[in-house]
Amino acid sequence: MNGQFISFEGPDGAGKTTVLKEMVAYFEKEISGELVVTREPGGNPISEAIRKLILDPQNTMMDRRTEALLYAAARRQHLVEKVIPALQRNAVVFCDRYVDSSVAYQGAGREIGTDDVYKMNLFATEGILPNLTIYLDVPSEVGLKRIMNHRKNEINRLDLEKLDFHKRVREAYLALARQYPDRIKVINANQEEKVVQHDVRILLEEQLHSRLRG
């Protein structure tokens, strides 16, 4: 697989999806070749159906291990149906969340063990990891405040968790960044939006330099 696989990560309220949209708008004009934009859980009909099940605020009885297994199942289907074929076509793949999300949210947030969740996802993905992961970091208090102020019509089951849950998630992300510094690059998302976008764009230009026009 000769393509480039780039994931975007961050705790709730980091502005990840907004930044990703801006990067897509910019790089689809700059990249020589195909740009595939996708998300997890989701990206295909089966995984989107699992996403709806996982994030439904009414599913309060869902067991934490059930949740982790559903994420892994959605990831597997997404990988074989969309990501791997794109990489085999030499495309650039921008993915909104990937394995690190499960390690942070289910492993640490749900407290079922980051190592166990990581190993389960290595099985699901056959060890396929991104070439680059951009992690947008923001204090948990700031992220939750943003959610309540700007996402009132889109709040899902994970958004409703208490502050301690979100702090565990953030701490796990930062631990992953320390463990895998060559793959995971940390961006301070508690800055002006234009500054965050600039910092992310610089990272992407470095990663994709051989794929850029001009």
UniProtKB/TrEMBL annotation:
Enzyme class (EC, first level): transferase
Entry's Gene Ontology BP terms: dTDP biosynthetic process; dTTP biosynthetic process; dUDP biosynthetic process
Residues annotated as binding ATP: 10-17
Database matches in Gene3D superfamilies: P-loop containing nucleotide triphosphate hydrolases
Protein family per UniProt: Belongs to the thymidylate kinase family.
GO molecular function: ATP binding; dTMP kinase activity
Signal sequence extent: none
Name this protein carries in UniProt: Thymidylate kinase
Keyword hit for Membrane: no
NCBIfam families with a match to the protein in the record: DTMP_kinase
CDD domains the record matches: TMPK (cd01672)
Keywords: ATP-binding, Kinase, Nucleotide biosynthesis, Nucleotide-binding, Transferase
EC code(s) of this entry: 2.7.4.9
Its job: Phosphorylation of dTMP to form dTDP in both de novo and salvage pathways of dTTP synthesis.
Sequence ranges assigned to domain Thymidylate kinase-like in this UniProt record: 8-199
Gene name of the encoded protein: tmk
SUPFAM superfamilies assigned: P-loop containing nucleoside triphosphate hydrolases (SSF52540)
Database matches in InterPro entries: P-loop_NTPase, Thymidylate_kin-like_dom, Thymidylate_kinase
GO cellular component: cytosol
Reactions it catalyzes: dTMP + ATP = dTDP + ADP
GTP-binding as UniProt keyword: no
Species assigned in the record: Pediococcus claussenii (strain ATCC BAA-344 / DSM 14800 / JCM 18046 / KCTC 3811 / LMG 21948 / P06)
